[in-house]
Write a structure and sequence with these properties.
By secondary structure, the protein is mainly α. It has one domain (5-80, 87-172). The chain has seven helices and no strands. Helix 4 (103-116) runs antiparallel to helix 7 (142-172) and helix 5 (119-133) packs antiparallel against helix 7. The longest helix has 38 residues, at 42-79. It starts with a helix and ends with a helix. The mean pLDDT is 91.
């Protein structure tokens, strides 16, 4: 299997950074769910909070890396304008807009994806701040813990929607 330079960047953006973000979500939410006074032992509390802090901070960083690499590395290749008479397979946006029945992938899919994706790192960062700042309070304050989980679920949903749209758009017109 041979991948071009652009395909490597697209793979890192979506599969590595985005995929790890979505995977980290499960561990962080499970950690928050299990952070209850009746379930946490005093001896394991320090380790549990450390794992939670590292997990949620990693999740926020991965979200930012995924969005930044998508916006400033992969997206310009997608949006590039072809020279007159060029083969459109190297210009995904123009290929989608110029192919009958595929214009909606750009007009709805990509336009929506590029905006919804930015919600994920913002929400994940807000959740990370709360976990890092109020870590001990999360054990006794159920509303705070559920609030953090709600932020993380919204971050997950926005990243999953952007990732799903990105996968479909890449299938219709890959960045080569």
């Amino acid at each position: 299997m041979h991948l071009t330079y652009r395909e490597w960047w697209a793979a890192f953006h979506g599969l590595i950074f985005g995929g790890l973000f979505l995977l980290a979500f499960t561990g962080v939410v499970a950690g928050l769910w299990g952070l209850r006074p009746a379930w946490v032992r005093a001896g394991g509390l320090k380790n549990t909070l450390l794992q939670l802090k590292v997990g949620v901070a990693s999740m926020a960083v991965l979200a930012w890396v995924a969005v930044v690499t998508g916006t400033w590395i992969v997206y310009p290749w997608y949006r590039a304008r072809p020279p007159e008479g060029a083969d459109l397979t190297d210009y995904p946006r123009s290929l989608l807009l110029g192919t009958p029945g595929r214009a909606d992938w750009h007009t709805f899919g990509m336009e929506w994806k590029e905006h919804i994706a930015w919600a994920a790192p913002v929400l994940a960062s807000a959740a990370a701040f709360i976990v890092l700042y109020y870590s001990n309070q999360l054990i006794v304050d159920k509303r705070l813990r559920y609030g953090v989980m709600a932020l993380l679920v919204l971050a997950f949903l926005s990243a999953a929607a952007a990732g799903l749209m990105g996968a479909f758009i890449t299938k219709a017109a890959p960045v080569q």
